[in-house]
Specification:
This protein is an all-alpha fold. Helices cover 74% and strands 0% of the residues. The protein has one domain.
Length: 133
């Protein structure tokens, strides 16, 4: 049990890095290899779809940004530089702190996966809407 807990944070971080790379590759493949096809200018869309496409693209950008930040947080922890004297203080053993960080990283990983998939769906919907009209 102790060995599993000691390796827990490292395993969560490895999984987070793998998901970050995999989801990034999927998005890059969709955009770079033109798997998502549509007009290159929202202004060329029918007027009723131009606003919708713009809002969908904005939502995709926001979801993708938060998804990327969540995946980075899961893989690399929060950006924090503490003093050495602060580490492990407060009467809590390092194992407890590592376990809490593993749980937090797992939560950020789940959120990042959902947000990145949402970004992909919104991007596809926005481009698909631009082709109408």
């Amino acid at each position: 049990m102790r060995r599993a807990l000691a390796q827990e944070l490292g395993r969560v971080r490895e999984v987070a890095v793998a998901w970050r790379i995999g989801l990034g590759a999927i998005l890059a493949g969709l955009v770079d290899f033109r798997l998502i096809k549509g007009r290159s200018d929202v202004g060329q869309a029918a007027p009723q779809w131009a606003v919708t496409a713009g809002l969908l693209l904005l939502a995709a950008l926001v979801a993708g940004g938060f998804g990327a930040l969540s995946l980075l947080r899961a893989a690399h922890s929060r950006p924090y530089a503490g003093r050495v004297a602060d580490v492990g203080t407060g009467g809590r053993p390092f194992a407890v702190e590592d376990h809490e960080e593993a749980l937090t990283s797992a939560r950020y990983l789940r959120n990042g996966i959902v947000l990145t998939c949402l970004c992909t769906g919104l991007l596809v919907a926005a481009v698909d809407r631009r082709t109408e009209g």
